[in-house]
Design brief:
By secondary structure, this protein is of the alpha/beta class. Helix content is about 45%, strand content about 15%. It is elongated and about 95 Å long.
Length: about 675
């Protein structure tokens, strides 16, 4: 094996005597005269000298006994629980390798260990065991303490250790980071005598740390869901006070509708964006004193812990509405419109006054600031890309690119090329010089993946790795490129059902669905159909230089009574067609497109069916159009109701209702 390092952080071991001599020079002269020691080790040695670390014996701190260690472990239950699969594998994987694996707290204290039994017994003589503190300020330069200090993976070999009594050891450590906040939660370390120095030890530590981070993400999301369930009744009750739901790390999970109003009335300027930390907690998850700025605004008396089976899972803050409460207030619609206008230019382009839609905009405005993937759910045509664009404009990276890609309109190979890019010669027809993919193009900005549920199963692990590692390899390339982008995904599918049926990876689902926003269909937005139709007419008049046309009352009633299976896209197409089909200033039902005016359906020849069709004939042109669409799709699917409902993007129960409403025979 080449004695030089082949992985980042691997020890340079070709000149052990030079390294030992350099350490002696540092201890005697206070400085180093050459570059025989890696910069990261030099910097650590200098810190050890400045902190008066004993250069002879590492870890002079008292090792905790079992009862005290058990008490400390309670503060790291999630970390230990998340590490169990990794530590269990290490028990067999390292059994005869002369190495051991440690799980380490962020303080540098070893929490537990697994691996070769003989090496574990030997490590006890060096306090390299659970309960011992290997912080750099206590134990000098070592993989555990130094990796935690610099926040990066590191291997420390033999004489690179600052303390003489551990010069026969090689240690490789990788830090574990919070999957949401990126702060250091601990480390994974692999130790053995110096002859066990191998690059795979560091790689194994890095892999173990990543696995633990993935487990932590699932644990935290499960606790968030539990917290939401436990406090559901509190949010269902009618009250004027503001409610803030906060997870066990002090981050916002949910607020009620009154929260913004109450905070404004009290003059509080707390950012209530999801996952924004608003409480400062100590290691025991208790509130830190009132000296912290946030607690100068949020009274600790308002905050109550939320427990489940005697375990703390979060906090709920009840912010009372200030007295006096009685004052003139504007109507709810006016207030909701004002709130919508304040959210930013992007959201001001979203037209709608219905309470459900305004609430959706408010939630989107909060999510826009969260540095995590967002999943937009909703039927086809509800405006998911408009929401994504508006959220991008409210994000700190709004001055960078917004890159959109529809995963459902490309073949597997075309999608792979568009998403990941490729190098020259990667495949037949590859562009000269290669091509950067949409992921690279979104670096620093926002990547919007529409219809992500359509992504082929074999591409999903490749995309998951991009999200986990923040790096990408173009097709045909081996050298990774660093990328940093905000992901907003969208789908009209039930991804949980797709996971259950094996069409979507569960790990990717959890990665992209940490925060989900459901955009309501047009049929659920009371009063918004006419508002949208009039807005579309105004936009057409501005765009083509004509006069703004109006809708007559009968046409308004007709539009409001329709179910709009195609949502805003269908409404826009219909109104646009009507705009160009007439020269009159007032549009009526007769100005609808010919296919919507037609009262003819595909009628069977027998008299009985003619009678039934006549009885169920649709006087409403829009109903007639809907009936024709259902009949056509039903024929295409050979009468299969499940496939018909799926293609129409409606529930099967809804399809039954429509079949009965229009008198459609299944064999039509």
């Amino acid at each position: 094996m080449n004695p030089k390092c082949t992985l980042r952080g691997s020890a340079a071991v070709e000149h052990p005597r030079k390294i030992a001599k350099a350490r002696e020079t540092l201890l005697s002269n206070g400085s180093l005269s050459d570059d025989s020691v890696r910069p990261v080790i030099q910097a650590s040695w200098q810190r050890c000298v400045s902190e008066d670390v004993n250069p002879l014996i590492a870890n002079q701190a008292v090792v905790l006994d079992a009862p005290h260690l058990d008490s400390v472990k309670k503060n790291y239950r999630d970390l230990i629980s998340a590490s169990e699969p990794v530590m269990h594998d290490a028990q067999d994987l390292l059994a005869n390798s002369s190495t051991i694996m440690h799980l380490v707290a962020p303080t540098g204290m070893i929490l537990c260990s697994q691996g070769d039994i003989h090496t574990r017994d030997l490590a006890d003589n060096f306090s390299l065991a659970p309960g011992a503190n290997w912080n750099e300020s206590v134990a000098g330069t070592n993989a555990i303490g130094t990796a935690l200090n610099i926040g990066a993976a590191l291997q420390v070999h033999a004489f690179e250790h600052f303390c003489e009594n551990i010069n026969n050891w090689t240690c490789s450590a990788a830090v574990i980071r919070d999957p949401f906040e990126n702060k250091i939660l601990g480390a994974v370390n692999i130790s053995g005598l110096k002859h066990t120095q191998h690059d795979y030890c560091l790689a194994l530590a890095v892999s173990g740390a990543h696995q633990i981070e993935g487990q932590l993400a699932q644990i935290k999301l499960a606790k968030r869901d539990l917290l939401l369930g436990v406090t559901l009744n509190s949010f269902a009750s009618t009250r004027n006070d503001g409610l803030l739901l906060i997870d066990q790390d002090g981050r916002v999970v949910r607020t009620n509708q009154q929260a913004d109003r109450v905070m404004a009335a009290r003059g509080l300027t707390i950012d209530l964006s999801p996952f924004n930390p608003i409480l400062t907690l100590n290691d025991e998850r208790r509130l830190v004193g009132k000296t912290k700025p946030i607690l100068n605004q949020l009274n600790p008396e308002w905050i109550q812990p939320v427990t489940h089976q005697e375990e703390l899972i979060g906090y709920i803050a009840v912010v009372p509405f200030p007295v006096p409460r009685r004052k003139a207030v504007q109507s709810s619609n006016d207030e909701e419109r004002t709130n919508s206008e304040k959210t930013g230019n992007g959201f001001s382009r979203l037209v709608g006054d219905s309470p459900l839609f305004v609430k959706c905009i408010q939630q989107a405005a909060r999510l826009a600031k969260a540095p995590i993937p967002i999943l937009l759910q909703g039927e086809t045509g509800v405006g998911k890309e408009l929401f994504a664009n508006a959220m991008h404009e409210m994000n700190p990276s709004h001055n960078r690119d917004f890159i959109a890609l529809n995963c459902g309109c490309l073949s597997r190979d075309l999608l792979a090329g568009e998403l990941f890019g490729y190098i020259e010669g990667a495949f037949t027809g590859a562009r000269r010089g290669g091509m950067a993919g949409k992921i690279e193009a979104a670096d620093g900005g926002t990547l919007f993946l529409d219809e992500i549920g359509e992504m082929p199963l074999d591409l999903q692990p490749m995309f998951l790795r991009v999200l986990q590692e923040s790096e990408i390899c173009r097709i045909g390339e081996t050298q990774p490129r660093k990328v940093n982008f905000r992901l907003i995904a969208a789908t009209n599918r039930d991804l949980a059902q797709e996971v259950a049926e094996g069409r979507f990876r569960v790990d990717l689902y959890y990665r992209i669905s940490s925060m989900t926003l459901t955009i309501p269909p047009l049929r659920q937005r009371d009063g918004d159909v006419i508002l949208l139709a009039e807005h579309i007419l105004e936009r057409l008049a501005e765009q083509y230089g004509g006069e703004t046309k109006k809708l007559d009352p009968a046409l308004k009633s007709l539009l409001e009574g329709y179910a709009w299976p195609g949502n805003i896209r269908q409404l826009s197409n219909l109104v646009t067609a009507a705009y160009f089909l007439t020269d009159r200033e007032v549009l009526t039902a007769t100005d609808l497109p010919t296919d919507l005016q037609s009262d003819q359906a595909d009628k069977p020849n027998n008299n009985e069916d003619d009678t039934q069709d006549t009885q169920n004939d649709c006087a409403n042109p829009l109903d007639q159009a809907e009936k024709e669409v259902i009949c056509r799709v039903l024929q295409e699917q050979d009468g299969n109701l499940t496939r018909t409902a799926k293609q129409l993007n409606i529930a099967k129960s809804t399809l039954y209702i429509k079949l009965n409403k229009y008198g459609i025979n299944r064999s039509t």
